[in-house]
Amino acid sequence: MPESLRPEEIRTQLASGRLGKTIHYFIELDSTNRLAYKLAAEGAAEGEVVVAEAQTRGKGRLGRSWFSPPGLNLYLSVILRPNLSPADAPQLTLVSAVALADTVQRFLGAPPAIKWPNDILVGGKKLAGILTESSVDAQRLHFVVVGIGVNVNLPASMLPEEIRGAATSLLILTNKIVDRTAFTGELIRNLDRCYGELEQRGFPPMAARWESFFELKGRKVKVEMGDRVVLGIARGIDRDGALVLEKQGGATERIIAGDVTRAEA
Description:
BirA Bifunctional Protein, domain 2; 5-stranded antiparallel beta sheet; alpha+beta; 27% helix; 6 helices; 7-stranded mixed beta sheet; SH3 type barrels
């Protein structure tokens, strides 16, 4: 069986960064995002991390749940207090996706794909996801919680039937047990680096990095938004993180939220 996470060793790996100086480690939580949000609302410092071996109510995007068995995967949330306008808050989801893709590439040995805006796919199957939750008013972005879930050492036999055809893990892909402590340290370092680049250079360079992992750019896609479905060519993302879709006739539409898949030719 894989070993438990080693918080002190993770902290040692992060000695020179600003994220991860405080790590709140739990054997089990209902949701790392829920606790991180509570801590941030109570004044927790930027960079504090909540990590758990298991979640009983892990949260995914669009109100979905996140399968969170104990001791196998990574369930982590980071508190950020960015100097961004409320309108620019979605940039943090995309920046986090770049950091996560960079980390997966190092352990996998090949680049994964980002599914807009925040899922990491390998071979068309979901390996990891991001859920960002913000405290914001009309004038100010108070804080952002970046929640990340990664299927690390999850065997195929443990995948629930309903997601077996759509999900994967590093163990399934490499047939090797991954050191989750090393993976966690690498992820927080990459997030620290990408977050710093956003602050120093602005969003356009990070948007270009994001698009380098976006396999659907230039391809015909289908976007499902509740009871509305839109078809078009995915042209990339704008400065707000919206997906830019070119529809038939050349008109473009900004997609703020929805499920994007490759359309049949």
